[in-house]
Amino acid sequence: MSSRFTRIKLGAITLGIGAAALAVPATASAAPPATPVPGTNCTLGQVERSIDANAPEVARYLDNPRIRAEFERIVTLPDAARRAEAEQYLNRYPQLRQYRPAVEARIGVIENTCSRF
User: Which first-to-last residue range defines the signal peptide (predicted)?
Assistant: First the structure.
Protein backbone atom coordinates (compact mmCIF):
# COMPACT_ATOMS: atom_id res chain seq x y z
CA MET A 1 0.00 0.00 0.00
CA SER A 2 1.51 3.34 -1.04
CA SER A 3 2.01 6.17 1.41
CA ARG A 4 -0.20 8.39 -0.75
CA PHE A 5 -3.02 5.84 -0.69
CA THR A 6 -2.66 5.46 3.08
CA ARG A 7 -2.94 9.19 3.67
CA ILE A 8 -6.11 9.63 1.64
CA LYS A 9 -7.50 6.38 3.00
CA LEU A 10 -7.09 7.43 6.60
CA GLY A 11 -8.63 10.82 5.94
CA ALA A 12 -11.61 9.35 4.15
CA ILE A 13 -12.05 6.59 6.72
CA THR A 14 -12.19 9.27 9.34
CA LEU A 15 -14.76 11.16 7.28
CA GLY A 16 -16.86 8.05 6.80
CA ILE A 17 -16.70 7.15 10.45
CA GLY A 18 -17.35 10.69 11.63
CA ALA A 19 -20.23 11.15 9.23
CA ALA A 20 -21.75 7.80 10.06
CA ALA A 21 -21.53 8.54 13.76
CA LEU A 22 -22.97 12.03 13.21
CA ALA A 23 -20.85 13.18 16.10
CA VAL A 24 -18.73 15.74 14.32
CA PRO A 25 -17.70 18.78 16.35
CA ALA A 26 -17.41 22.10 14.58
CA THR A 27 -13.70 22.67 15.09
CA ALA A 28 -12.42 24.32 11.93
CA SER A 29 -13.36 26.80 9.28
CA ALA A 30 -13.50 25.75 5.64
CA ALA A 31 -10.15 25.18 4.01
CA PRO A 32 -9.54 26.70 0.58
CA PRO A 33 -10.11 24.21 -2.29
CA ALA A 34 -6.49 24.70 -3.42
CA THR A 35 -5.16 23.38 -0.10
CA PRO A 36 -2.84 20.44 -0.83
CA VAL A 37 -3.75 17.07 0.63
CA PRO A 38 -0.51 15.89 2.30
CA GLY A 39 1.15 12.95 0.59
CA THR A 40 -0.83 13.32 -2.65
CA ASN A 41 -0.66 15.27 -5.87
CA CYS A 42 -4.24 16.42 -5.28
CA THR A 43 -5.80 19.47 -3.73
CA LEU A 44 -8.67 19.41 -1.29
CA GLY A 45 -11.01 20.56 -4.07
CA GLN A 46 -9.90 17.70 -6.32
CA VAL A 47 -10.50 15.15 -3.55
CA GLU A 48 -13.94 16.61 -2.86
CA ARG A 49 -14.88 16.54 -6.57
CA SER A 50 -13.69 12.95 -6.81
CA ILE A 51 -15.87 12.09 -3.82
CA ASP A 52 -18.83 13.83 -5.52
CA ALA A 53 -18.31 11.74 -8.65
CA ASN A 54 -17.33 8.42 -7.09
CA ALA A 55 -18.99 8.29 -3.68
CA PRO A 56 -22.24 10.27 -3.84
CA GLU A 57 -23.48 8.61 -0.66
CA VAL A 58 -20.51 10.17 1.17
CA ALA A 59 -20.73 13.45 -0.72
CA ARG A 60 -24.19 14.03 0.73
CA TYR A 61 -22.63 14.31 4.18
CA LEU A 62 -20.34 17.07 2.94
CA ASP A 63 -23.41 19.27 2.43
CA ASN A 64 -23.47 19.65 6.22
CA PRO A 65 -21.10 22.54 7.05
CA ARG A 66 -19.97 20.95 10.32
CA ILE A 67 -19.11 17.66 8.66
CA ARG A 68 -17.39 19.43 5.74
CA ALA A 69 -15.26 21.49 8.14
CA GLU A 70 -14.23 18.39 10.07
CA PHE A 71 -13.49 16.49 6.86
CA GLU A 72 -11.32 19.34 5.57
CA ARG A 73 -9.51 19.64 8.88
CA ILE A 74 -8.71 15.93 8.99
CA VAL A 75 -7.80 15.43 5.33
CA THR A 76 -5.26 18.26 5.49
CA LEU A 77 -3.56 16.95 8.65
CA PRO A 78 -0.11 15.35 8.52
CA ASP A 79 -0.18 11.56 8.17
CA ALA A 80 0.44 10.67 11.83
CA ALA A 81 -2.23 13.05 13.07
CA ARG A 82 -4.73 11.77 10.52
CA ARG A 83 -4.01 8.17 11.55
CA ALA A 84 -4.52 9.10 15.20
CA GLU A 85 -7.87 10.74 14.38
CA ALA A 86 -9.05 7.62 12.54
CA GLU A 87 -8.09 5.40 15.45
CA GLN A 88 -9.85 7.70 17.91
CA TYR A 89 -13.09 7.39 15.93
CA LEU A 90 -12.70 3.64 15.65
CA ASN A 91 -12.02 3.33 19.36
CA ARG A 92 -15.00 5.51 20.18
CA TYR A 93 -17.30 3.67 17.74
CA PRO A 94 -15.90 0.12 17.41
CA GLN A 95 -19.06 -1.08 15.65
CA LEU A 96 -17.95 1.00 12.66
CA ARG A 97 -14.85 -1.13 12.07
CA GLN A 98 -16.98 -3.50 10.00
CA TYR A 99 -17.35 -0.79 7.35
CA ARG A 100 -13.62 -0.25 6.94
CA PRO A 101 -13.18 -2.64 3.96
CA ALA A 102 -15.98 -0.97 2.00
CA VAL A 103 -14.62 2.48 2.80
CA GLU A 104 -11.10 1.45 1.78
CA ALA A 105 -12.36 0.13 -1.55
CA ARG A 106 -14.16 3.39 -2.32
CA ILE A 107 -11.13 5.40 -1.23
CA GLY A 108 -9.02 3.54 -3.76
CA VAL A 109 -11.28 4.86 -6.50
CA ILE A 110 -11.17 8.39 -5.09
CA GLU A 111 -7.40 8.28 -4.72
CA ASN A 112 -6.92 7.01 -8.27
CA THR A 113 -9.17 9.65 -9.83
CA CYS A 114 -8.69 12.84 -7.78
CA SER A 115 -5.96 14.20 -10.06
CA ARG A 116 -8.47 14.20 -12.95
CA PHE A 117 -10.69 16.78 -11.25
Answer: 1-30
